[in-house]
């Protein structure tokens, strides 16, 4: 079993959006791990400019046929991988997804807090009515 440990620093506060227990990704069945062409494409996908853009599109095409695309994407999002295509997503796409996760969690937290405030207010009104 080939394990790929987290090797790079996180991308600032974005990683806090989905921080969980660190985990390794088993890459034995990954298409990009078992194919020289795919490895070359994924290396080029991290390059700036037109080469990186074309290679990223090809890397995403390769990802679509990968049996571990979901696990790869989860790994990249949880560990805020700062380069290349992972799980069919470029760095920019992963950053946008992490921000969306942060926003959704913030909104859910706010809704829970507002519901608690409403429950507390209702309870206080009920207590006032009983004591009056």
Structural summary, described in words:
With 132 residues, the protein is mainly alpha-helical. It has 4 helices and 2 strands; from the N terminus they run ββαααα. The protein has one domain (3-131). Helix 1 (36-45) packs across helix 2. The longest helix has 41 residues, at 91-131. The N and C termini lie far apart (70 Å). Residues 1-21 have low confidence and may be disordered.
Features of the shown structure:
mainly alpha
Element layout with pairings:
Layout: E1 3-4, E2 25-26, H1 36-45, H2 49-64, H3 69-78, H4 91-131
Antiparallel strand pairs: 1-2
Helix pairs in contact: 1-2
Radius of gyration: 22 Å
Spatial shape: elongated
Q: Average pLDDT, to the nearest integer?
A: 78
The strand order across the widest sheet is 1-2
Provide a short characterization of the protein structure:
The protein has four helices and two strands. It is mainly α.
């Amino acid at each position: 079993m080939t394990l790929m440990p987290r090797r790079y620093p996180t991308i600032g506060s974005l990683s806090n959006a989905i921080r969980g227990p660190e985990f390794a990704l088993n890459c034995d069945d990954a298409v990009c791990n078992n194919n020289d062409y795919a490895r070359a494409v994924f290396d080029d996908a991290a390059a700036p400019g037109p080469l990186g853009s074309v290679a990223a599109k090809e890397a995403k095409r390769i990802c679509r046929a990968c049996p571990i695309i979901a696990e790869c994407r989860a790994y990249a999002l949880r560990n805020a991988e700062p380069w290349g295509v992972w799980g069919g997503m470029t760095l920019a796409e992963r950053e946008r997804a992490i921000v969306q996760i942060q926003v959704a969690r913030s909104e859910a937290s706010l809704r829970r807090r507002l519901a608690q405030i409403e429950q507390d207010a209702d309870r206080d009104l009920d207590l006032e009515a009983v004591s009056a």
